[in-house]
Amino acid sequence: MTVTSQVFDLLDNSVRKITVSRFLQPTEIQKAAIPKVISGENVLIIAETGSGKTESCMIPIFNRIAKEEMKPIAVLYITPLKSLNRDMFSRLLWWSEQLDLDASVRHGDTTQHERKLQVEHPPHLLITTPEQLNAMLVGEKMLEHLKNVKCIVVDEIHETIESKRGIQLVLALERLRRVCKEPQIIALSATVGSPERAAKFIFGDRKFSIVNAVSMKRLEISVEHPYPNAEDRIAAEKIFVGEAVVARLRKIHDLILKSRSTIMFTNTREAAELLSSRLRVYDKELLHDVHHSSLAKEVRIKAEKEFKEERLKALIATSSLELGIDIGAIELVIQYMSPRQVSKLIQRVGRSGHSMEKISKGIILAGEGDDVFESAVIARKALDGELEELTPYKKCLDVLVHQIIGETIRPYEADIDELYKTFSRSSPYKDMTKDEFLNLIKFMEEIKLIFIEKNLIKRKRKALLYYFENLSTIPTTRNYRVVDIATNESVGVLDEEFIAEHGETGSTFIVKGRPWRIVSVENDKVFVDSSGVIESAIPGWDGELIPVTFEIAQEVGELRRKLGNLVQSGMSNEQIKDAISKKYPVSENVIGEMLSIIKRQKEEMPDDKTIVFERYAEYVVMHCCFGSMVNETLSRYISSLISAEDGRAVFSKTDPYRIIFQNLQVDRIKKVLLETQPEMLRTILSLSLPNSSIYKNRFIRVAKRFGIIAKDAQLEFLNIGKLIDIYKDSPLGHETLNEIYTEKLDLDSATRIVGMIQEKKIRIREIEGLTALGEYGLRYELTDVMKPNRPEAEILKLFRERLLNTKIRMVCLTCGRWAQTEQARDIPESIKCPKCDSKLIAAVSPFAKEVEEIVKKKIAGLELTDAEQKRMDSITLGADIVLVNGKRAVIALAGRGVGPQTATTLLSKHYRSEEEFLKAILAAERNFIATKRFWH
User: Fold this and answer.
1) Whole-angstrom Cα distance, residue 360 to residue 286?
2) Under a CB-based contact definition with an 8 Å cutoff, are residues 855 and 838 in contact?
């Protein structure tokens, strides 16, 4: 008997027949997983996207439902995305129909009617999200159905393990286990760097097996770096991007045309939109679309459908398409610039060749400078299976509070000892002491979520609302649109945390590479003016790039060092290229770009064993190949100590390969690194972080999860500093630090690095002036500081265009029978009514519909109300200045907030040029926007 027949022979006859009709023979992953699942074990199945993970666990589960005649709800299938729910439902519905089983989906968009049907007629298989599981656990009737659950499938767990959403999930599973008595759990994951850690995260101390099928599919990954040619230089002028970007666009265009279907991944939504817009200019006939999380669901579904039907040649996406949504066959994956993480690259490239028999093909189009080295290292690590280690959260206090409240909703009270026993069984809380747990319970009483009676906790009235408002651990932030008052156009978006800290009138910040000054914050808009004060401006862009690990940055340093040694040894370029290409899957151009940087560097090369300081103008560039989180930790450590000594703020910015300080001496930085005990690093940061913006931002998120700040609170009206002082030493303050230390900083590695510096295992070198790598750091990491300000002439030109494009409603005050809306540019110099030839014409907003009614009422001799008479006086004043000044008055009235009174003042002055006149209108606008909120 063959292995194939042995695996399918484990199934009951009805399920086996359906399975054989679907699969002529089992896949490799089915051979490995089906026996484990059938045995009833807890199993973690790890394999690439498209390998058939879902069927490998669901076929034996369907077999168990049919064999044991399980009551609904028999199986919960938990996925992290609503879009994945939708896709999974369509895939599993076929199996359910074949076996005469009911299947349903429940997520945030599920209608009340569907939810009611699920309660009254529960399905055998329910596909849901972590958030909806938490909602169902407190529903009286749904809780009864959940008692029947025998199997739980947790899909795409690699997406949640390192987030608080993952913590919420494992705690909810512990609560569910109490209800349905230890069901079998099967976890599905893409390739991860720590399978054992992933399994323990989801299963805790329970027995489990791991089916690791990642080696069964081949990857082809290469790194390319196209150089600009003569045609690229011409095209660059037409589509308003640099020559290097056009070279990459040309390469993207060629690759898309040569492939049947392509997905191109970018690291940010902004990059996806920008590349799509430039591709449309480059080739209007190229059929492609954009796919990212900020787009409406209908738009994403349409793009997925058209791509699957091959009506589109390509999709440009962010992480929204990393997960296993079925979008058909993909021949090629392009990664635009470094993916910054090995796991990201494998997940993305794994989308191509969407079956185990095919090779997954991926190309990284690397940029300049650090990007070519980083892309080469990540590609090598991906091919060798060296993924990042997982770092799950531990002892999250805010998420635990939410789960404790969940246990008091039905029934109304909960035993403290039982709660501790339940939650400490989960992996993230196994080291939590009883005293720590009791301290948290007492804090919950202090913030009035519960009250304690003997050994029982009982929820207060507000706890029910708190629980449902916090079903999602994903931060919800209010966004503000940044509007340039000169052009009335949006120039970017700021989140509420930025506004809470920096939203005062007059503050300067940087968005889209230019400095702006806040004129006013109104509702969901921030009105800004172009600013020349770039030195004090702070970055306003809230998008955060994926962190580059210490290990990747160290290998980038090692690669630099080895290349430098090869160059110094006298090897020819061809010999060096041969040597490097044996280890790294890179093109000749990539190696050429690396060598160009090495040769231009000339001076000391910063590498894995060497820190190099450079001095340039007011900047100190500290080159250190320690990765995003270590460099951020060192930057804050150095800045905190020097700031405490000097009593002033220290400006610094980090990337994975350098820290850039402003207005600091190298000796001061070296003194901190060489003379402060490494063990003091945690203490120093714990004392200084509560005064930082990162703490403030994280504090707001955590306070919302504790219910201390309402989800929809308007932060500009809260004294966040006072709240921080009140709660700094409470579980809220401790959890804020826990979040920062887990997601943003690497204390252990940074402490080790400082020790190695002091032991002289890491060298320190100094250089006067700027090297090639230093220039790259300033040019790309401090782009905002290095970009030129927008000249005043350009501002006035844009402002003039905006005024001329403004629509104005002309209304005759003599006959009241004529009114017409025109752009200000199309209004004649001398204005008169075509009905009665009167020149008494009012210029008003086209949205002021009441004006014509008031004018007609006045002409008819009817009595006006006090408000109407006041409005009529203003209209008449406006008509008088149009009569005297013609089109010039209309242009003045086109200014935002410029009424007849202000226009009269503006037009009474003498201006030497149109430029002076425009400056006066713009100044009036600024004054109006700045003072508007004080008016009644």
Assistant:
1) 24
2) no
What would the two tokens of residue 703 be? 């306070």
Q: What is the DSSP letter of 760?
A: T
Q: How many CB atoms lie within 10 A of CB 858?
A: 18
In this structure, how many other beta carbons lie within 10 angstroms of the beta carbon of residue 674?
12
Query: Would 3-216 and 219-383 be classified into the same CATH topology?
Result: yes
What is the model's pTM? 0.77
The residues spanned by each domain of the chain are 3-216, 219-383, 397-469, 479-539, 604-786, 793-934
**Residue tagged 């590479």 (tokens):** 513
User: What is the CATH number assigned to the segment(s) 397-469?
Assistant: 1.10.10.10
- Whether 211 shows a pLDDT value over 50: the answer reads yes
Binning pLDDT at 50, 70 and 90, where does residue 815 land?
very high
**Residue 620 dihedral angles phi and psi, to the nearest 5°:** -120, 120
Exposed, middle or buried, 234 (CB in 10 Å: 0-12/13-18/19+)? exposed
| Single-letter amino acid, residue 547 | P
Number of helices (H), then strands (E), belonging to the chain: the values are: 39, 30
CA distance 185 to 171: 14
Six token digits for residue 233 = 């230089």
Half-sphere exposure of 309 (CA within 13 A, CB side): 7
pLDDT band at 656; cut points 50, 70, 90: very high
> 172-202 burial, b for 16+ CB within 10 Å, e for fewer?
bbbbbbeebeebbbbbbbbbbbbbeebbbbb
What phi-psi label fits residue 760: left (phi over 0), alpha (psi between -120 and 50 degrees) or beta? left
HEC string for 817-866 = CCEEEEEHHHCCCCCCCCCCCCCCEEEECCCCCHHHHHHHHHHCCCCCCH
CATH 3.40.50.300 fits 3-216, yes or no: yes
pLDDT beyond 60 at 789 = no
- Helix (H) or strand (E) segment spanning residue 378: helix 370-383
Confidence bin at 217 (pLDDT 50/70/90)? low
In DSSP notation, 542-587 reads: ---PPPPPHHHHHHHHHHHHHHHHHHHTT--HHHHHHHHHTTS-B-
Q: Residue 757 corresponds to which amino acid?
A: I
Distance of CA 242 to the CA centre of its chain: 26
Residue 212 has pLDDT above 80, yes or no: yes
- The per-residue pLDDT for 785 is 28
Strand 103-106 and strand 125-128: pairing?
parallel
Confidence of residue 490 (pLDDT cuts 50, 70, 90): confident
Backbone angles phi, psi at 204, to 5 degrees: 65, -135
pLDDT at 216 over 70: no
CB 390 within 8 A of CB 194: yes
Domain 219-383: which CATH number of 3.30.1360.170, 3.40.50.720, 3.40.50.300, 3.40.50.1220:
3.40.50.300
Q: What values do phi and psi take at 721, rounded to 5? A: -60, -40
Q: What is the pLDDT of residues 533-564, one digit of tens each?
A: 544 445 444 445 789 999 999 999 999 999 98
- For 909, the 3-state DSSP assignment is coil
Q: What is the pLDDT of residues 158-191, one digit of tens each?
A: 888 989 999 999 999 999 998 888 899 999 988 7
What is the C-alpha radius of gyration for the chain, rounded to an integer number of angstroms? 32
Q: What CA–CA distance (Å, rounded) separates 386 from 417?
A: 42
Closest-CA residue to 441 (of 472, 417, 477, 412): 417
Write down the pLDDT at residue 932: 59
